[in-house]
Design goal:
Layout lengths: L14 E5 L8 E5 L6 H9 L10 H4 E5 L25 E4 L5 E5 L4 E4 L13 H4 L10 H11 L6 E8 L1 H9 L2 H10 L1 H25 L4 E5 L12 H21 L3 E6 L7 H6 L4 E4 L6 H8 L4 E3 L13 H15 L5 E2 L8 H23 L3
Parallel strand pairs: 3-7, 7-8, 8-9, 9-10, 10-11, 11-12
Antiparallel strand pairs: 1-2, 4-5, 5-6
Helix pairs in contact: 5-6, 7-8, 11-12
């Protein structure tokens, strides 16, 4: 079987460039390996659970952008313009286009509802009067798309859009928190279902605008359904309120030939049958809340997974040797017959990131060569 050499940092025989990655204030040197097929072709093989040539690396193989428009200031404005608050190194307050105020917490790597912000909706039965759905036609999608397609689009890569909050996440944000939202679901199920149905229509309208301007390959939809102990709501609530509006969104996007990824935090194993039934392509879930290797083994033939580097805690120090060993372990655990992607770009230095990228690419190529019996 072939062994693929790991080129040293900035080897002149390797094409590379320096980029500003999303969610990070630090630039990164990105190598461009000698691919046997394009990253997009390889990604399709992986998602369709056919043997790919390497495990897709979202840090390298994707071109990604986020939908949505911020309507308020970012404070303090220390983030790269294209990253918005997600690139900030200090806590930042911003307003989204629904009127919800957020606090970005860099040490957690994401935003939370600002405790000092005003609650948009106090009574779910009044949502039709109070909630102002963003008027998508009034936003300047065209200029943004023209700039992206001219200056960033690469037809060989996976064009990935993070479409933002799903129906329950938006519901929670408008009501000011999970306690208020779960009480509303228990006490006013009809009003909640009506809101979710309307939200699904709005989400589909947003997707259609985007798909008309960009040749999108993958959509990530965020809807957290649990804590690290269990789901926020029961199977009965899922079936009566959340399932059909979500199914409508998934079906519409997939009918356009676009792959669908669900990001959902928490211990959400009890909802796996619904995710499979909706024909969701990929799950982006919490490793520490779910036995993902077991899930991959049991249902990997029906649904795929975004796999974080196994054994490495984000934000915690790790040696280069530990990172490279963890990358190999990730491929061994999740790589069988495709159905998985990961990311490898970080490290204590730019050189460590380079080595991580090549270890993932080369080790997974060796793994899949063995799987297909290549010489």
């Amino acid at each position: 079987m072939a062994h693929y050499p790991r080129p040293p940092f900035r080897d002149p025989a390797v094409k590379f460039k320096t980029i500003q990655p999303m969610f990070s204030p630090a630039p990164m040197t990105v190598p461009e390996p000698d691919y046997p097929v394009t990253p997009l072709e390889n990604f399709r093989l992986a998602v369709e659970r056919k043997t790919p040539y390497w495990m897709p690396n979202s840090s390298l193989d994707y071109d990604a952008f986020m939908s949505g428009f911020l309507t308020g200031p970012v404070t303090p404005p220390d983030a790269p313009a294209e990253a918005g608050p997600w690139g900030a190194t200090t806590r930042s307050v911003f307003m989204d286009d629904w009127g919800c105020q957020w606090l970005f917490v860099p040490e957690a790597g994401g935003p939370m509802l600002d405790p000092d912000g005003k609650t948009v909706l106090d009574d779910i039965t009044q949502w039709e009067k109070v909630v102002k759905f963003p008027n998508l036609k009034n936003l300047d999608w065209k200029s943004r798309a023209e700039d992206f397609m001219k200056n960033r689009y690469n037809p060989n890569k996976v064009l990935h859009i993070n479409i933002g909050q799903g129906c329950t996440e938006r519901f929670v944000a408008l009501l000011g928190g999970y306690t208020e939202a779960m009480v509303a679901m228990a006490e006013e199920p009809e009003a909640c279902r009506a809101f979710f149905d309307r939200f699904a229509e709005w989400e589909i309208e947003q997707f259609d605008i985007i798909a008309g301007l960009y040749p999108v390959n993958l959509v990530t939809y965020h809807d957290d359904w649990g804590t690290e102990r269990d789901t926020f709501f029961s199977e009965k609530m899922m079936e009566s309120m959340v399932l059909e509006p979500t199914r409508k969104i998934v079906k519409h996007i997939k009918d356009r030939g676009v792959y669908f990824e669900l990001h959902s935090c928490g211990a959400i194993k009890r909802f796996l049958p619904y995710m499979i039934d909706m024909h969701i392509d990929l799950l982006q879930i919490q490793r520490r809340a779910n036995d993902m290797p077991k899930m991959k083994e049991e249902v990997g033939g029906k649904i795929g997974f975004c796999c974080f580097t196994e054994g490495i805690e984000m934000g915690q120090p790790a040696s280069k040797e530990d990172i490279l060993a963890a990358i190999r372990k990730t491929v061994d655990l999740y790589g069988k017959r495709g159905g998985a992607y990961t990311f490898a770009s970080g490290g204590a230095s730019d050189e460590d990131g380079w080595d991580a990228v090549f270890e993932l690419y080369c080790y997974s190529r060796e793994f899949y060569d063995r799987e297909r019996g290549a010489a």
